[in-house]
Design goal:
Blueprint (H helix, E strand, L loop, with lengths): L5 H15 L3 H4 L6 E5 L1 H4 L4 E2 L7 H7 L2 E5 L3 E5 L5 E5 L10 E5 L10 H13 L3 E6 L9 H17 L10 H16 L1 H4 L6 E6 L1 H12 L9 E4 L15 E6 L11 H8 L4 E6 L18 H12 L9
Helix pairs in contact: 1-6, 7-9
């Protein structure tokens, strides 16, 4: 367990409590490894609001966000009500015309903006792919960090425990934000130097769920052209007849979302849609760009190679 990142730690603690019946009071003992609280002005440079805002509304809403630096992960945010998109563009002459909207995870109650957002986007940009980090709307949590820890663990524990009256880990607005982000990138494709037909997504954990929901719920012409599904639930879904190619990556020892034989991959395959699976021997949940000492460190190389195989990395933007 020493290898696990801090965000993964509280997620697994919630699951353990749900499975073992640990009293709610025990949740108070779990503390986030927050080393610094950031002002919003320092946390999100270059971000673009997804929706037109009434004057003063964005600033007021942003003030309610809780930005922190988590040891081992970097910037994280809670209580997002004003979604944004932060572009990371390739160097001049390096762009290949593809674009990816990056959706970080965090149980729909936080977003791991560095670990599963900005760092991912920089690696994509280094490979000539325009990347856009999506800060989507979240389930509210208390402003106080320790109270938030207790609320997050309680909700996660209840969700994994199951039953008819427990809160679900979902946020429909996150899917709406993802669809809007794809629409925004395509509308400004010329500005960003990308091909509207080659705009996809990659999501991690809750971000993977958001990417999948976007595929399942968006009108066909607004879906991502492709999507990376990184340590998302492996349960089967009803696959649209024209579903985009899926790149599924998960560690075989993922404690949150068991592989279960990869039913979601089987569903994609049976629907005769393009799909690739990377089941890493080790890595746990939340490995991000890769956990040192494991083959999860190959994630971005493999995702890039897969995009090339699909024909999404043309040397020039299509007219």
């Amino acid at each position: 367990m020493k290898m696990l990142d801090r965000r993964t730690g509280w997620m697994l603690a919630a699951v353990a409590m749900a499975q073992s019946g640990v009293a709610a009071a025990e949740a108070a003992k779990v503390k986030a490894a927050v080393s610094e609280i950031l002002p919003v002005s320092m946390a999100e440079p270059g971000a673009i609001p997804l929706y037109p805002q009434v004057r003063g509304k964005k600033a007021k809403a942003a003030e309610a966000e809780n930005w922190t630096v988590v040891r081992g992960e970097g910037r994280s945010v809670r209580n997002v009500t004003v979604p944004t998109l932060t572009p990371f563009l390739p160097e001049a002459g390096k762009a290949n015309g593809a674009a990816v909207v990056v959706a970080p995870g965090g149980g729909f109650m936080a977003l791991s903006m560095d670990h599963e957002g900005y760092k991912v986007a920089r690696q994509l940009a280094d490979r000539g792919i325009a990347a856009f980090v999506l800060k989507y709307r979240l389930i509210p949590t208390p402003a106080d960090q320790q109270e938030a820890n207790r609320a997050i663990i309680a909700r996660l524990g209840a969700a994994f425990r199951g039953g008819p009256d427990v809160p679900k880990l979902e946020k429909p607005e996150a899917t709406e934000d993802a669809i809007t982000a794809l629409r925004m990138v395509r509308a400004d494709a010329a500005k960003w130097g990308v091909d509207p037909a080659r705009v996809g997504m990659i999501g991690f954990s809750a971000g993977a769920i958001t990417a999948l929901n976007t595929v399942l719920q968006a009108p066909a012409d607004q879906r991502p052209a492709f999507f990376g599904y990184v340590y998302g639930p492996q349960t089967a879904v009803a696959v649209p007849a024209d579903a985009p190619p899926m790149f599924d990556a998960i560690a075989m020892d993922d404690q949150l979302f068991k592989t279960m034989g990869f039913p979601i991959v089987e569903a994609w395959h049976k629907a005769k849609r393009k799909v690739e699976i990377h089941g890493y021997q080790k890595g746990y949940h939340g490995f991000g760009l890769g956990r040192p000492g494991t083959t999860t460190t190959l994630l971005m190389d493999e995702f890039h190679a897969w995009l090339a195989m699909q024909g999404f990395l043309g040397s020039q933007t299509k007219k």
